[in-house]
Amino acid sequence: MGKMEFNKMQNYDREAEILKVLGHPVRLKIIAGLTSQTCNVKKIWECLGLPQATVSQHLALLKNKGIIEGRREGVEVFYHVVSDQARRIVDALFEPVGCP
């Protein structure tokens, strides 16, 4: 076996923070849904079957951590994923198994 080495120059803080935030099932579902489309808050809470207040709290945390952004159109806010790291994590977790 070879000697184990770590990249001492790499800062893992941002990645660890993203993993912590995505560690909640509701936030993971939100990011999984938003990787393929932009959605407004109403559609997100309807799809999740959760109260709007609960979904809004999770969206606020995701937004504050720089994982999603919102775009206002009139009275509606549409969210999309802006973190490439979060997108790659979710894509890796939910890779299609592929049935021909």
UniProtKB/TrEMBL annotation:
Organism: Desulfuromonas soudanensis
Molecular functions (GO terms): DNA binding; DNA-binding transcription factor activity
HTH arsR-type domain span: 7-100
InterPro entries in the record: ArsR-like_HTH (IPR011991), HTH_ArsR_DNA-bd_dom (IPR001845), Metal_resp_trans_reg (IPR051011), WH-like_DNA-bd_sf (IPR036388), WH_DNA-bd_sf (IPR036390)
Superkingdom of source: Bacteria
One Pfam assignment: HTH_5
Full protein name: Transcriptional regulator, ArsR family
NCBIfam families: HTH_metalloreg
Keyword annotations: DNA-binding, Transcription, Transcription regulation
